[in-house]
Specification:
Order of helices and strands: HHHHHHHH
Largest sheet: none
Number of domains: 1
Structural class: mainly alpha
Number of strands: 0
Number of helices: 8
Mean pLDDT: 84
Distance between the termini: 71 Å
Strand content: under 5%
C-alpha cells in the first residue's frame, strides 16, 4: 500500500467519523457527545475531530430550529396566531435578549426547541443567534464531553470490554435525568402560572 493511499484512507476514515458524529447530534446530542468521548478515550478518535464535529453538528441543528421558526413566520396560519403588533413588540424584546435566551435554554432541558423556533419566528437576528448558539454549545458540550471522557477512561480501565454496557447505563441515566429535569421545570412553571 502506497503512502498516498494510506493518507487518503486515513482522511476518509476521519471524514466518516466526523460525519457520523455530526449526524448523531441531530438524533440525540448528549448521546453523540458521550459516544464521541468514549471513542476518544479508547484512542479510536482524535480529540479535535470529536469536539469540532460535535460543535458543527449541534450548532447546525440549533440553526435548523431557528430556520424552522423563521419559515413558519411566513405562513398565514402562524401569522394569525400572533398579531403583527405583538410580533413587532416581541421582536424588539427578543432581539435585545437573544444571547441570554440562547445561553439559558442550552442549559435547561426542554427549552431549546421552543426558544430557538420562537427566536426564528420573531426574526431575532441570525448572526447573533448563531454566535450565541456557538458560545452555549462550546460551554455545555465541552463540559459534558470532558466528563464523559474521564468516565470513558475509568470505564475502559475497570470494565474493559464491558465498558459499552456501562456506557448504555450512563446514557439511560443521562436521558432520564434530562426528562426528570424537564418535568420538574414544567411542574414548577405550571404551579407558578396558577
Amino acid at each position: 500500500m502506497s503512502g498516498k493511499h494510506l493518507i487518503l484512507t486515513r482522511m476518509i476514515g476521519i471524514f466518516s467519523q466526523a460525519v457520523a458524529i455530526i449526524l448523531g447530534t441531530f438524533v440525540l446530542e448528549d448521546a453523540a457527545t458521550l459516544l464521541a468521548a468514549m471513542q476518544v478515550s479508547s484512542g479510536a478518535l482524535a480529540l479535535p475531530v470529536a469536539l469540532g464535529s460535535l460543535y458543527v453538528g449541534i450548532v447546525l441543528g440549533d440553526i435548523g430550529l431557528y430556520g424552522l421558526g423563521r419559515a413558519s413566520a411566513t405562513q398565514g396560519w402562524a401569522q394569525r396566531l400572533v398579531p403583527k403588533r405583538r410580533q413587532d413588540l416581541a421582536h424588539d424584546w427578543a432581539r435585545r435578549r437573544v444571547v441570554g435566551l440562547v445561553l439559558v435554554s442550552r442549559f435547561i432541558p426542554g427549552l431549546r426547541l421552543p426558544t430557538y423556533t420562537t427566536l426564528g419566528f420573531l426574526r431575532a437576528g441570525l448572526v447573533r443567534f448563531a454566535l450565541a448558539a456557538f458560545l452555549a454549545t462550546a460551554r455545555w458540550t465541552t463540559g459534558l464531553f470532558f466528563v464523559c471522557l474521564k468516565l470513558g477512561v475509568i470505564m475502559t480501565h475497570y470494565l474493559g470490554i464491558w465498558r459499552w454496557a456501562g456506557l448504555g447505563v450512563f446514557l439511560i441515566v443521562l436521558i432520564l435525568v434530562g426528562r426528570f429535569a424537564t418535568r420538574l421545570y414544567n411542574k414548577r412553571e405550571h404551579a407558578d402560572g396558577d
